[in-house]
Specification:
Blueprint: H1 13-28, H2 38-45, H3 49-61, E1 65-68, E2 72-75, E3 80-83, E4 100-107, H4 111-117, E5 125-134, E6 137-147, H5 162-173, E7 178-189, H6 192-198, E8 205-215, E9 218-228, E10 232-235
Parallel strand pairs: 3-10
Antiparallel strand pairs: 1-2, 4-5, 5-6, 6-9, 7-8, 8-9
Helix pairs in contact: 1-3, 2-3
Keywords: DNA-binding, Transcription, Transcription regulation
Domain HTH gntR-type: 11-78
Protein name: GntR family transcriptional regulator
């Protein structure tokens, strides 16, 4: 990183510094590399440490940097593309699925979920919990609600609990002929459970993607997936594998 003069720049110093730092991240640093400490960076750019912190905070908010306790500030991986295309749909747990099953329980879902699934108010459903990791960091957590009527052949003997039970439920779900998927996206804030699972503070911005899987004219499963807003980007279209570029060469998806 070289020194640059910021005195004559009309925009806020920290904003221009953010741009300069962003260009340096693209040209001089690799993913996971640790940045010099704040004192050295401030001296190199001729700014106050308060100005530098503002620029670093903005880059962290945009997902370009990660601050890790005991490690320092590192260059973050590119944002993960979350495809909401209209191409061929598959059930959760298929060969191309990047989610990892964590566990599976049977419980009465929240009222809004029960209404969407058209189950009785006291009817328990299978709740599969899954996680998604990118470059070694958690980026998303999912609760997948599946009525027992969607997997009537499920055996409790082969997979009584845990991740094995989750995989068994998903295997049975894939026996159904899926008609379509219906997606809804909204911006939210992380609750206590999501924040812990995603390694964020409660209240951190998240993207909540709700997907209804329809088979035989009814909702066979409902997914509520919570993504870290600083690590993910929604993509639209039929192509699922969208390459995400960070920095000046970033292309709109």
């Amino acid at each position: 990183m070289g020194t640059t003069q910021l005195e004559s720049v009309p925009e806020p110093k920290y904003w221009h510094l953010k741009t300069v730092l962003s260009e340096a991240l693209d040209s001089e640093f690799s993913v996971g590399e640790i940045l010099p400490n704040e004192r050295d960076l401030a001296a190199r750019f001729g700014v106050a440490r308060a100005t530098l912190r503002q620029a670093l905070e903005q880059l962290e908010l945009e997902g370009r940097l990660q601050r890790r306790r005991g490690v320092g500030t590192t260059v973050a991986p590119p944002r993960m593309g979350v495809s909401l295309g209209t191409g061929p749909h598959t059930w959760p747990g298929g060969p191309e699925d990047a989610w990892q099953p964590v566990d599976c329980t049977a419980a009465v879902p929240p009222a809004a979920v029960a209404e969407a699934l058209e189950t009785g108010p006291e009817e328990s459903v299978h709740i599969v919990r899954r996680s998604r990791v990118s470059h070694g960091r958690p980026v998303a957590a999912e609760l997948l609600y599946i009525p027992q009527s969607s997997v009537p052949e499920l055996s409790g003997i082969d997979a009584p609990s845990g991740a094995a039970r989750a995989r068994a439920v998903l295997r049975e779900l894939q026996r159904l002929d899926q008609e379509r998927q219906e997606n809804a996206v909204e911006l939210g804030s992380a609750g206590a459970d999501d924040a812990k699972e995603l390694d964020r503070l409660p209240g951190a911005p998240v993207l909540v993607v709700t997907t209804r899987f329809v088979a035989a004219g009814r909702v066979a499963a409902l997914s509520v997936a919570t993504y870290r807003a600083d690590t993910c980007r929604l993509t639209f279209g039929d192509a699922g594998g969208v390459e995400i570029h960070a920095g000046p060469e970033r292309r709109a998806s």
